[in-house]
Amino acid sequence: MTGTAAHPVAGRLFSRPATAAACVAFVLIGALQALYGPAVPAVRGEYGLSPAAAGLALSLHFTGGVAGVLGFDVIRARLSSRALLAVSYVLMAVGAAGFALAPGWPLALCAAFLGGLGFGGVDYGLNQLFAVGFGERSPAMLNILNGHFGIGAVLAPAVLAALGPDRYPYAFAGCALLSVVLIAGTRGVRDEAAPAPGPREVSRVARLSPVLLGFVLLYVLNVAVEAGVGGWEPTHLETVGYATATAATATSAYWLMMTVGRFLVVPLTLRYAPERILAVCGAGMTACLLLALVPGAAPVAYAGVGLFIAPVFPTGLPWLHRALPTARHAGAWVIAASMIGGVAAPPLLGLGIEVSGIGAVPVLLTVLSAASLVVTVWLARRSGVRRSDGPAVDEPVSGSAGRERSPGRAVR
Predict the structure, then answer these.
(1) Nearest CA-CA partner of 367 in 353, 354, 382
(2) pLDDT (tens digit, 9 = 90+) per residue, 13-55?
(3) Distance between CA 6 and CA 262 in Å, rounded?
(4) What is the Cα–Cα distance from 141 to 163, expressed in whole angstroms?
């Protein structure tokens, strides 16, 4: 069955225009997050701030993001998906415009928090809906969606560099305007179907299960690796003899490969199970981080980490929903955990580096990556069920929600 551009296909949560608007929204949230760093020099000059004080804007943006994810998850049952996204866009517009126009630093920080709330609502709402809204194609669509986040994160600093850092208010105002425009894109969004009713005890067990805790740990570890490479790669490369410009270029290549990797994996998600893809990604990340111990290969090795880590976040969400179909808050918990991990990982890694030295960066990151691979393998075993006539297969608790998997590819 096909649908028109104005109405979603039966069983799907997004019309074609709404799908396109969602991708634009992820370009927007990627751009908004990436603008704070390049704006710091101008912000410090305008408000007379120390580096630590200027960094509070991004911290409050992430704090708002976590609050937005958890808060909107709590009220999701009372709001339609369309209303949740519309409120998120309004908050992001108010926050971005407020940061651009704030007459003082306290108001600018409040605006950054409000923008973060909207950011969290958009991030959570669209990831949640894409994870369940495209059936067999959800892993592919999630990678496409999150790939657009990378596009925004790469383009925004380049645009601000062209405008000049002192003109950062124009960049934030542009984000605010685009947020308002995107409200119209919510018209083609439908609500996801409620899960099949079951005993309250079953839902409670699902929410507190070791499998859910395993997914939270998997996301924390992978985001720790992602943020750790992004934060410490330049310092490590300079320590082993690379020029500052070369180290910066290599770090940009790492982020670019994260974006490219999400688009490259799309056809693979239509053929292979998410857990199989994540296991390969974990092994590839670990191998590349070990290769980064070789100074001459380090820049290429870090780019390889970006390529392998790219599919983990978006590909893991459909697996989570298939493994725990009754755990209504599971998606919010892992997305919030990923944000917290991204904020906490770089300073915690810094403590380890103080003890062992900059040269140990690849070793520390390898330990985290290897741990994520172990968790992935464990989850693959725990989230499957056994048939009486054969070995464990990756089959969901609710049979209609997932797929049986042959040794080579997924089948309907």
Answers:
(1) 353
(2) 888 899 999 999 999 999 998 888 788 888 888 899 887 788 7
(3) 28
(4) 33
